[in-house]
Backbone:
């Protein structure tokens, strides 16, 4: 075994399948290998070229001001309007009749919104906000289901320079009120409710309760979505009565490139949520370029679908700002993948002829569990690019996605990035890269990501360590809202002059990057640092495992012992022999050091609304502790179900 006690992070998994792009794909690809050379020759000139993909009212004086690191300013002196770049310029170019959003409501209601219609609605909303006293710099909180008005609200804020803070529809009163308070928001835009899992789910009562603690909020603008009974307070206004009747004349004013565009709260694993601040010119440059390059978007012919929620950064950069700045036609779906049946996603792909699909590993593993026969019932031949984001994608899930969704012909792009990075940082380019299942591969042109050891030295190929970013990038966070010190301490204090992302990673023999999960989750077993990702991937590599989450639980002999929680596929239940087989399978795949001490079969795993497994809660169970903070769980009853399941005796 290659590991030594000094290793930063063990490199156990080897995967040697590769999938080069087809010559036809490469021939028409938006971006070629030359982009890497161009960016390597002059990084700032490269980003300057990408910034010219946008319309600016005033040119910049300087591409990057890094005089006071890590507080970056990009395109200083430049001025633009972000919403005008997403809407007005397309309409002015004669594309007003192009569909911007094919909306598919969960109950089956649909709407096609063209760019001209979207612009009209955004202008009305901008006039409404201004009429309510919202000025440039004022913060607006958006708490909405996945409906076109959510995008309208964001773009209206951008248009008048009022930074938005979108909070996941469905977050609790506590989560909502703490975000409203931290941002000091003046206005909240919400809906009466949204449809989820076949039922109307009320949102307005949560806003009402949250506002009891938030004196800064003057007005609440309420979109009617479900039509359910809600209480009306004096500060509440109906969207239909205000935006619906407002003037559609509105001239977008340019703002400075560094004008704040949005705050988005990220909870991290512990502590107070951090308000990640993004600004305008650099953010839009990178969101727009990466959407064009990584998904190979051809706006005239593609139908793009990102299944993320608008409350996640993925919804900001790859539903609203990236795609719309590129004039894309996209699908927006309100509901869950199993309502009213487990083929809903594939029915939508078939119905709209979706060509580019961007989703999360958690969804892909769920589809694997539901069975190959479900996507097989639908015509998915329109698809040509598949993307993944949010967590490391296990090689087996990657290969399943390529075969069963992509018909074995679509490039799969595994995109690594964060709320903090604003846009994609590490990813294959679909017409260039020979992809490897489970690897995000290399920094995009103009981005310099590295894997370093504790001293901040680059690890050699084959080594493991910490993922860092060596050079500033256009869509980087500018600070944590109201807390520069926390910004410095959280991201810049670990390694001199480098941004630390909090993720473990390794380089393979070709220098390609493999993400290994959050460093907080790394397990220390008999002196070896073992990543959660590798053990989980080994488990998912077994034909009876759909999903796995592993944690290190304190162990008197080894320091920590590996405890695995698994969801089964293809088999109804487990047995002591089956559990033994799974443990041996991991030992065989990764070496005896990674053999789980315990394998526990569960029906579900605790996840955030964006689909990330919350291992910290599983650690509480594995160590038999009281379960910690569950406020950001998608379903906060899941932990009690796991506990009940354990007591009824499925333990090894
Ligand atoms: C976009 C987004 C960021 C964290 C990040 C990492 C994990 C995201 C990943 C990935 C491996 C990928 N992550 N994409 N890990 N491979 N392709 O997810 O933002 O919600 O802020 O989460 O998600 O751990 O540090 P955010």
Residues:
């Amino acid at each position: 075994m290659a590991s030594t006690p000094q290793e930063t992070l063990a490199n156990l998994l080897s995967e040697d399948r590769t999938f080069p792009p087809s010559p036809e794909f490469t021939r028409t690809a938006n971006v070629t290998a030359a982009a890497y050379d161009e960016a390597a020759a002059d990084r700032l000139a490269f980003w300057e070229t990408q910034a010219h993909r946008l319309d600016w009212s005033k040119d910049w004086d300087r591409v990057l001001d890094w005089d006071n690191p890590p507080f970056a300013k990009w395109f200083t002196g430049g001025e633009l309007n972000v919403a005008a770049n997403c809407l007005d310029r397309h309409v002015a170019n004669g594309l007003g009749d192009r569909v911007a959003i094919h909306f598919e409501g969960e109950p089956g209601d649909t709407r096609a919104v063209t760019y001209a219609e979207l612009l009209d609605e955004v202008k009305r909303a901008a006039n409404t906000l201004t009429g309510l006293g919202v000025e440039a710099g004022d913060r607006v909180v958006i708490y909405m289901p996945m409906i076109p008005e959510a995008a309208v609200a964001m773009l209206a804020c951008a248009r008048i320079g009022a930074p938005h803070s979108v909070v996941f529809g469905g977050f609790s009163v506590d989560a909502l009120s703490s975000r409203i308070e931290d941002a000091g928001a003046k206005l909240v835009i919400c809906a009466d409710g949204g449809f989820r899992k076949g039922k109307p789910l009320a949102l307005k009562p949560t806003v009402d309760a949250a506002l009891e603690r938030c004196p800064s909020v003057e007005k609440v603008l309420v979109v009617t979505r479900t039509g359910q009974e809600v209480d009306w307070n004096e500060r509440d206004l109906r969207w239909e009565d205000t935006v619906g009747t407002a003037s559609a004349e509105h001239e977008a004013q340019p703002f400075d490139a560094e004008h704040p565009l949005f705050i988005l709260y990220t909870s991290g694993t512990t502590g107070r949520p951090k308000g990640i601040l993004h600004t305008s010119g650099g953010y839009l440059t990178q969101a727009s370029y990466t959407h064009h390059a990584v998904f190979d978007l051809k706006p005239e012919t593609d139908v793009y679908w990102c299944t993320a929620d608008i409350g996640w950064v993925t919804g900001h950069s790859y539903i609203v700002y990236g795609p719309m700045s590129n004039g894309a036609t996209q699908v927006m779906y309100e509901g869950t993948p199993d309502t009213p049946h487990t083929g809903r996603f594939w029915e939508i792909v078939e119905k709209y002829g979706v060509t580019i699909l961007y989703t999360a590993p958690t969804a892909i593993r769920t589809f694997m569990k539901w069975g190959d026969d479900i996507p097989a019932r639908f015509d998915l031949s329109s698809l040509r690019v598949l993307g993944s984001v949010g967590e490391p994608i296990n090689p087996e899930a990657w290969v399943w996605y390529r075969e069963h969704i992509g018909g074995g012909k679509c490039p799969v792009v595994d995109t690594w990035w964060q709320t903090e990075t604003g846009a994609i940082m590490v990813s294959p380019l679909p017409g260039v890269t020979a992809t490897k299942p489970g690897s995000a591969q290399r920094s995009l042109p103009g981005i310099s990501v590295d894997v370093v050891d504790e001293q901040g030295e680059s690890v050699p190929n084959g080594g493991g360590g910490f993922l860092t970013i060596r050079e500033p990038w256009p869509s980087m966070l500018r600070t944590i809202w109201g807390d520069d010190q926390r910004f410095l301490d959280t991201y810049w204090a670990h390694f001199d002059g480098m941004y630390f992302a909090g993720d473990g990673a390794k380089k393979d023999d070709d220098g390609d990057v493999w993400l290994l999960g959050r460093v907080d989750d790394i397990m220390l077993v008999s002196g070896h640092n073992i990543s959660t990702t590798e053990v989980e991937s080994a488990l998912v590599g077994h034909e009876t495992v759909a999903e796995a989450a592993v944690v290190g639980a304190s162990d008197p002999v080894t320091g920590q012992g590996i405890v695995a929680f698994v969801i089964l596929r293809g088999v109804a239940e487990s047995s002591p022999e089956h559990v033994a087989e799974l443990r041996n399978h991991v030992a065989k795949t990764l070496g005896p050091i990674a053999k789980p001490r315990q394998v526990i079969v569960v029906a579900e795993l605790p996840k955030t609304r964006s689909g990330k497994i919350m291992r910290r809660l599983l650690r509480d169970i594995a160590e038999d502790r009281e379960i910690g903070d569950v406020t950001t769980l998608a379903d906060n009853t899941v932990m009690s179900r796991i506990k009940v399941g354990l007591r009824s005796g499925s333990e090894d």
